[in-house]
């Protein structure tokens, strides 16, 4: 038996959550075209041959402005420090950005073993990759590099095989059928937040947090889930509710469909929206989404 922690690290939007989901074969971490969608560490438990790969999705690394941002970036670095292998994910459509150079400089101090994963190769001419690889190896000692498309799955099997062979000997830490250690109530709140990221724009998604207030199993096998959406400002509340409640209805419908699939049972989802000034600086709110 082999078992080890692998952290996915990179700039916002590099495709870390998409890759985690592809490697885990399940939608565990929420994805949107907007930067900073992931706010906490999400563990995906992936069985490959006789190896349990404990794959950690982390928030994108960027310059923090508020307390929430600081907690997110700090969660990402803790993920890298704790990992046996750190996968540095590079969005090849942008190449070596300033953001990536900053991450690389800090990775040198925090991580022992770094593999580089060039992502989104479905979008680029792969000839661009050779100079990019050279630029990165000049900055950072990397053990291995991979070319993948997290979206199509191209190259993902090779990456999984390489991890399975390389992780240290040791007992599995989780039952082999588990997909994640995250509680269902946290996954439910995340799926609601994902829909807000998908269906609202500009500063609205960054004004929002979602918390599951209650999660009750019903005798018929279904589950009732009540989620509170906190927003920083009254006008954001109005945007999320929408004209005649159309927007919140759509958020709820889409999140419920995803939840049914993830929890493999019918879900009844109830949403309420509350204005809460300064939630993004409140310890309790950050703790509720797994941040310290
Ligand atoms: N074409 C293409 N798009 C991708 C690929 N991987 C991710 N994306 C898209 O890139 C966007 C960001 O993906 P995420 O997985 O949310 O990125 P992330 O690194 O987790 O982002 P943060 O939450 O900001 O840290 C989404 O629109 C994805 O669909 C890929 O391999 N190819």
TrEMBL record:
An example Gene Ontology CC term for this record: plasma membrane
Q: Where is this region: G2?
A: 36-40
Q: Where is this region: G4?
A: 119-122
Q: Give all residue intervals belonging to the Era-type G domain.
A: 2-169
Q: Looking at the record, which segments are called G3?
A: 57-60
Q: Which residues lie within the region annotated G5?
A: 148-150
The family database entries (PROSITE patterns) matched by this protein are listed as: G_ERA, KH_TYPE_2
Q: What is this protein called?
A: GTPase Era
**Provenance organism:** Commensalibacter papalotli (ex Servin-Garciduenas et al. 2014)
């Amino acid at each position: 038996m082999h078992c080890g922690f692998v952290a996915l690290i990179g700039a916002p939007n590099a495709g870390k959550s998409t890759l985690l989901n592809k490697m885990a074969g399940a939608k565990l971490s929420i994805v949107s075209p907007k930067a900073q969608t992931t706010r906490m560490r999400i563990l995906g438990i992936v069985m490959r041959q006789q190896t349990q790969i404990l794959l950690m999705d982390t928030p994108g690394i960027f310059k923090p402005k508020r307390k929430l941002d600081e907690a997110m970036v700090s969660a990402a670095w803790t993920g890298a420090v704790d990992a046996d292998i750190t996968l540095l994910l590079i969005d090849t459509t942008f190449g070596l950005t300033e953001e990536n150079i900053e991450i690389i400089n800090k990775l040198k101090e925090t991580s022992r073993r770094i593999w580089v994963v060039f992502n989104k190769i479905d979008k680029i001419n792969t000839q661009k990759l050779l100079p990019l690889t050279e630029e990165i190896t000049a900055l950072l000692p990397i053990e291995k590099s991979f070319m993948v498309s997290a979206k199509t799955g191209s190259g993902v099997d090779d990456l999984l095989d390489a991890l399975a062979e390389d992780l240290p000997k040791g007992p599995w830490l989780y039952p082999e059928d588990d997909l994640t250690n995250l509680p269902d109530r946290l996954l439910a709140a995340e799926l609601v937040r994902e829909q807000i990221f998908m269906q609202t724009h500009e500063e609205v998604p960054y004004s929002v947090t979602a918390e599951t207030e209650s999660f009750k199993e019903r005798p018929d096998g279904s589950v009732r889930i009540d989620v509170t959406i906190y927003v920083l400002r009254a006008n954001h509340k109005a945007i999320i509710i929408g004209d005649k409640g159309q927007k919140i209805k759509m958020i709820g419908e889409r999140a419920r469909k995803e939840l049914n699939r993830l929890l493999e049972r019918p879900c009844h989802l109830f949403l309420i929206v509350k204005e809460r000034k300064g939630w993004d600086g409140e310890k309790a709110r950050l703790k509720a989404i797994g941040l310290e």
